[in-house]
Fold:
Amino acid sequence: MIELPRIAITGVGLTSPNGDDLAEYRANLLKGVSGVEPYEIRHVGKTLAGVCHFDALRYQKKKELRRGTRAGSVAIWCANESVRDADLDLARYDSARIGVYTGITEHGNVETENQIHEVSQYDFDLSFWSHHHNPRTVANNPAGEITLNLGISGPAYSLGGACAAGNLGLIHGMHMLQLGEVDVALAGGVSESIRTFGIFASFKAQGALAHHDDPAKASRPFDRSRNGIVVSEGGCLFTLERLEDARARGARIYAEIAGHGINSDATDFVLPDASGQNACMRQVLARAGIGPEQVDLISTHATSTPSGDSVECEALRQVFGDCATTHVNNTKSYIGHAMGAAAALELAGNLGSLEDGVIHPTINVDDLDPDCEVRNLVVNEPLEVGGVETILNLSFGMLGINSAVLVRAPRA
Structure:
């Protein structure tokens, strides 16, 4: 059996509704600070959302912002911050050997909706339609904007994986490094979802759009009174390197990717399936060569919908029910559902546990739903457990796609 190169995370660049770098983000997760706020969008009206507030002009000019997309801007921020965090001098690398892999839920709806609205103000005179529309709406746009910004000429594209996409970007970057196709990968997920009224309208029509008098309490996974999703934007890109390369240059290593899993339920357009999620979890454990009892922390996907949270908890009980030292938490309770960026942001928020042994809680659990009872669910207050060696990051999406990534603390 061929032994594949080990892959390390050496940089993290992110923007989230409650933090624009890893230190701020992690601190707010431990302090229970929500990033959900009042929001209003055309054709839907007043609602709630997770909004990012990063300074786009740090890495882009005004002209570039006008020509590009919000997802591209998020991606550029995350890529630059990740490279900086990894202390990488890209000029020392062959730019054709640097890859960019951005997971996305969808792309292009924002720009198309905006363009249709604009030309409708001029009786659909298409001379007012922007000639930038096509490059803005192609699916590879976020990854492509990164290459233009950083001068990267290696393989760069986006991976559509619904709300499992953030893990997919990370997994694909790992594979490209193991195959020897690239020497550095910028991989994760990005989302501009709050800029399209279509997503809000669809969730509202389903009765799946969260509402609460206090925006900070709207996203409440596992709580009996949960009533839907808070739509959020954001992004997180990891710098990935082969472990031996990272060590050779003396890089800081956040974690090593120890295993991954991807499968499909093949049961429904929207409704999740516990058996498919169960199989995905067992797949990643088998690839990592460990048992359920060796997982210290599970970062759940739970989106604060009545059925989705219950199904996931059923799958967790099936796989981890007897694991006394496996703890469980959720990050969407702070930032809402960042769609294509969700998995990457949620993994990033838990990486600190590998260093300090503290697990951030799921907030807003005032009345735990009996259907969501899982062993060692961390709620409302951080929990110091003395040591975290392994993290299982779960993320599931529409049309039954399931993804999971297992990372572990750096070791010899």
